[in-house]
Each structure stands twice: as C-alpha cells, then as structure tokens.
Amino acid sequence: MFDQVHVPTLFLWTPVVSAAALLYWHVSRRRGLPLPPGPTGIPIIGNALSLPSQTPWVTYAEWSRKYNSELVSFTIFGKVHIVVNSLRAAKELLEARSAIYSNRPHMTVLDMSGWDFNLGLMPYGNGWRARRRLLHIEFATDRASAYWPLQMAKNEEMIRRLYEDPDGLLDHIRVSAASIAMELAYGLDIAPKNDPFVELAQKSVAMVPRAGRPGVVLVNALPFLRHLPSWLPGMGFKRSAEQCFKMVTDMIELPWAAVERQVAEGTARPSLTSSWIIKNKDSDPGEEAERAAKDASGVLYAAGADTTTATLTSIVLALVLNPEVQVKAQAEIDSVVGRSRLPTFDDRAYLPYVEAVVREVRRWHQALPLPPSREVDQDDIYMGMLIPKGAQIFTNLWAITHDPDVYADPDVFRPERFLTSEGTLDNDKSWTLFGFGRRVCAGQHLADATIWIVTASILAVHTISKAKDAQGNEIPVEVATLDGLVCHPAPFRHSIKPRDAEAEALIKSLRKNRVY
Question: Pathway it belongs to (predicted)?
Fold first, then answer.
C-alpha cells in the first residue's frame, strides 16, 4: 500500500519546499481576510504530522464544534485545505457557486497508480466532460426504468443463491452489484465465485484506499518525489503504485478487448462498450475518444459496484442491530405487496417505511463520508472567511448527516426520522449523498434503484439476525468502518434465513435464467 505519510522522508525533504511554503504563507497573509479556523500547525510543514489517520471525518466535525465554524482549515506544506461541515455551506459553495468549485486537484499518486482514469477523481475540463457525457447519456433520469428488468433479474438470482448459501450473504450482494455493473458496462456475465474481472477490480480498488485524503500520501504534497529512486527512505510507495498501475490497466483493457472480440464475432450483447465500438467501427474517432470510452466503462464497473456494495452491506448491518425495523418493514411489504411475489419498482411509491430505511442507512453509515476533494478556481469569501484560490475543499458528509441539531441522536438508527406524523415521506434530501453541483454522481439513479430493490426483496422473504455461538448465545456486533476510498462496514457475524415456509416457497419458485 502507499497510503501513509513517511515521517523520516517528510523531514528529509522539508528544506526543499521551505521557500515555496513561506512565500505562499506571506501571499495569503496579504489577502487580509482570515482563513477558516483550525488547529495550529508547525512552521513550514503545517499540520502534516498531526492529521487524523483514521475516520478523519469525525475529527473534522469535532473541530467544527470546537471552533464554532461551518468551515475549518489546515495546511500541508503551505497548501490550504478547507473542510465543509454543514449542508448550508455545501449548497452555497458547491451548488450556488459551482462555476468555481467543480474542479478536482491534480493528485500525483493517481497518475502513478493508474487511477487518473476515474471520472470522480478527474480535474474539471474537456477530459472530464467527455467521460461524463457518455455516462450521462446512458444513465439519464428518463432512462432509469429501462434498466429495471435487468436489476430485477439479477436481484432474483441473488435471492436464489442466498437460499442455497446463506453464509455467503455479503459475497452474494457484492456479486449481484458487480454483475449489474458488468452487464451494463460490457454485456458480460460474471461467475458467482472467483470471477477474474471482479477480483481484478477489488484488488485495484484496495490498492488506493485513502490516496485522496489530506496528508496521507506524501507524493501528493511533494510531486517531485515520484522521480526519486525507489531505494531512498520512504519511497516504497513507488513499487506499490507500479503494481496498482498494472492491475488498473488490465481492469480497463481486458473486458474491453473481450467485447471487441464479441463484436467482431457478432455475439456482443447491448452495453455501453459494445454500443460505442459498433457506432465507431467504420470510422476513426481518435485515440482520445477511445480512451474516454474505455474510462467511462471502467469507472461504471469498478467504482459503481463498490459503492453500491458498501451501502447494501450497511443495510444488512442495520437490520442485524435493529430487528424492530425489520418487523415494521416486513409488515408494510406484506400489506402492499402480499406474500406471493417479490416487490417490484412499481411498488416503491407505496412503501414509505422501506424507503425511509434506505434513506436512514445512507445517513447513518455512508459509503463516502469524506468524498474526494475539490479545488477552488479563484479567491472566494464565505461568511467573512477567505477561501484562497487553489485551496482543496473537502465536504464532510458524515458531519452533515450526524449534526445533532438536525438529526436528534444521530448515532441511533431510526428510519422514522424521515417520515411525517401521517407516515408519509418528508422532504429531507440531505441523505441523498450523491454529490453536489456539477459533480453529482452520473449513475445515481442506477445505484439508488439497485439498493432499493435488493433491500425490499431481502426484507420480503428473509429474516436477518445476530449469529449465535456454539452455546446458543448471540454474538455481539459492533459498528465499525473499514477506512478506504469507499468505506465498508467492518466484518460482522450475522444469520439469515427464510422468514417462514411461505417465504421459502416463494424463493424456490423464482425462475432461473430469467430473460430481461
């Protein structure tokens, strides 16, 4: 891995950047207005040695309360980093002022590891627009229902596999999310276990768990380090980056090549990739256009499946810890859908409590509590505080959704907080967490639909509970997070079984190899 600051290396290279950091400091001081408040740093290196290494979003929220400020700031080698801790500030800066807050900072580690292909991490510009356009056309709001049959079919496959292998619940969820993404991106089937494409994507994602976090990867602050020999102290990240680059390249190129062969043979299924190849097979769109198409398919497959899996795993965790929520959701499903079939998307509007469960999970345990940073394009002012040009802007979604002034007892899982006294959904949209402004997730409607249908279907026919030890005692479950680029719940023990004989009969009746 290369997600750590090497302290000896930091001090070794401090003199090289001292002059630049001091100059930046003096320029900032001359601007007159204060930066947002934050912890005091060390001269030259700033806060590089004192930043939290685990769950930084919790620390940033604590700073926000300590300094009584929606924005907090710190510096790393003279570079200003600002954390937005309120929904009001996020909407004002990232939406109302999106013209200057839509950029991403250039991160050297992404170039080195191959992850610069990722639309979500890419600086704002023509390359970003080209990739965004491809995904927006494919997954626009008015096309969302076109993918429902596929999502229903993959969901039924998961429910059947879950019955046959209940101990593999989280693996089945992961495969189901990956199979939808792979089908849409490439039109390819994946194996239920040990699929080479799925394993390649998982390994690639795991290699850069926290690469975009402030102060985590030294080469982001000191880009010249990439040119130094690997044998120097602290340069081990270069070897990890080289390994990751090879895996990311294979992750993008291998499925694309498979679809190219299928197109040539006339066996390719409809997908983002096959559509592009067929459309351009008699022309030369250019290397850059092909690169954009490959990247768009790759990010749909790799990043989309991972965030969906993390959210669905959090839903399982919430149901294990809150059996009363299951009972209420199942009662609602039974009254609306009945017991003879699984829920469909047509039922969604009539299942407000199930909808509230999904919303509450996104609030309670986010897949992206601290999304990748943005970079402001010009000096700006918010509530009398200077946001200098080039500052990196982080949105603390965890702080926004755990604000006790907005959500009472924020650590408690309570779907009712999204319902009115009449039992209908309220208008709170802060839970959506698909981004702000021009950086909103292009695949949000696809991800939202997958998460809902899997949640509703599992609730309809299964009961999830705590696992028991050999003596029949419940095994305790703790809420913990695996800190990474996407944050999954830490592993936890659980038990799942059909609700009753009627549910078991429904599961057995599900058709195999459903055509969609």
Answer: Secondary metabolite biosynthesis
| Residue 101 shares a structural domain with residue 121 | no
- pTM for the whole thing? 0.89
390-412 exposure pattern, b = at least 16 Cβ within 10 A, e = fewer: ebbbbbbbbbbbbbeeebeebee
Query: 236: burial class by Cβ within 10 Å (0-12, 13-18, 19+)?
Result: middle
* Residues spanned by the domain of 67: 32-108+372-402
Same domain, 324 and 356: yes
Return left, alpha or beta for 68; rule: phi > 0 is left, psi -120 to 50 is alpha, else beta: left
Tokens of 511: 């058709």
Q: What H or E segment, with its residue span, contains residue 464?
A: strand 462-465
CA 24 to CA 439: how far, in whole Å?
28
**What does each C-alpha distance from 409 to 421, 436, 457 come to in angstroms?**
19, 25, 29
Instruction: Identify whether 6 is part of a domain.
Output: no
Pair 280, 389 in one domain: no
Q: What three-state secondary structure class fits 326?
A: helix
- Are the CB atoms for 388 and 80 separated by under 8 Å? yes
Annotated binding-site residue? 441: yes
Residues 69 and 155 in one domain: no
DSSP-derived letter for residue 83 is E
36 and 168 co-located in one domain: no
Query: From the first residue on, what is the mean pLDDT of each consecutive set of 10 residues in the chain (516 residues)?
Result: 47 47 47 91 90 91 98 95 97 96 90 89 91 86 85 94 91 92 93 87 76 72 82 81 91 96 96 94 90 94 85 96 98 97 97 97 94 95 97 96 95 96 86 80 88 97 95 93 87 95 94 52
Task: Give bridge partners of residue 375 from the DSSP assignment.
Answer: 103, 392
What's the sign of the alpha-carbon dihedral 219, 220, 226, 227?
negative
Residue 215's CB is within 10 A of a number of other CB atoms, namely 24
Buried/exposed 88-110: b ≥16 CB within 10 Å, e otherwise: ebbebbbeebbebbbbbbebbbb
Q: Do 240 and 190 share a structural domain?
A: yes
Cα–Cα dist 298/255, whole Å: 9
Same domain, yes or no, for 454 and 343? yes
Question: What is d(CA 10, CA 166) in angstroms, rounded to the nearest whole number?
Answer: 49
Residue 19 lies in a domain: no
